[in-house]
Fold this sequence. Notes:
It contains 7 helices and 7 strands. It has helices spanning about 30-40, 60-90, 95-120, 150-170, 180-210, 220-240, 255-280; strands spanning about 5-10, 15-20, 25-30, 40-45, 50-55, 125, 135. A 5-stranded antiparallel beta sheet has the order 1-2-3-4-5. The radius of gyration is 21 Å and the shape is elongated.
Amino acid sequence: MTPTEQRAEGAGPFTTRLTWQPPGGGTAVWESRPARRRGVIAIRPPGAPTSRRTSADAVSLRRLRRLNTVAATAFVIGGALFAAGAAVAQFGSADAITCASIYFAGGLFFNTGGFISLLQVVNSPRHVPGGEGRLVTPGWRWWSYEPTRVDWLSTFVLFVGTLVFAVDLLDSFLQGLTVQQVNRLIWAPDVIGCALFLISGHLGFVEICHRPWPCLRCRSLGWWIVAVNQLGSVLFMVSALAAYTRPATGSLINTDITNWGTLLGAACFSLGGLLQLCERP
Length: 281
């Protein structure tokens, strides 16, 4: 830390909040999620009872708004399509190919949302350590490698999870598979994708809570977004585990749990996307 920094907080190798005294006095606080999602740093001038927020430049804010809108909309539509696919599987009379097609379309939107979320982090404003509380936005990039940043790691794991789901969704179009092939080509990628979603959600809590375990912050919109999405990930995992095909009978462990878990989990991701639309710079 620089001499003007007072405190760094986070978990393990991740720094998620910095508090320091700017050269002009007072206190500046940088938090990972508000800075990257809303482009703001909290500044308390000398003698002031409350903090004010300084924001990134107008060009950076427009960029953040566009990326946030695209990512959030993609998750809303992707979640809605997954919910529709589960509803058709549970209540409709459509064949397996129709359900797989609906799921695959939803998966494409999840892929888009995951990649745009990663772009949000790659192109997010960066704070100037020990300065007056300014945010500086780098030039546009399509990729970066920053595994020591919890926000980058969380969104990267999320994006990889959507790609693993894509493998599961593509394999679901295959016909004439044996039980062992179904479990290896469809069920296993489904479980792995769900596990990656859960890991991503946990890292999201680390970013917001500044510690290794989840916290309760009901007044934080960012916390609600992470919590709702994590609930969706849990429901997806329950659905995936119930979708294991028994070798002895060739039937799923529980079809109702599979469909309802997918439907409710997908609804959570749609709700998370709607909440994300409100988390604008």
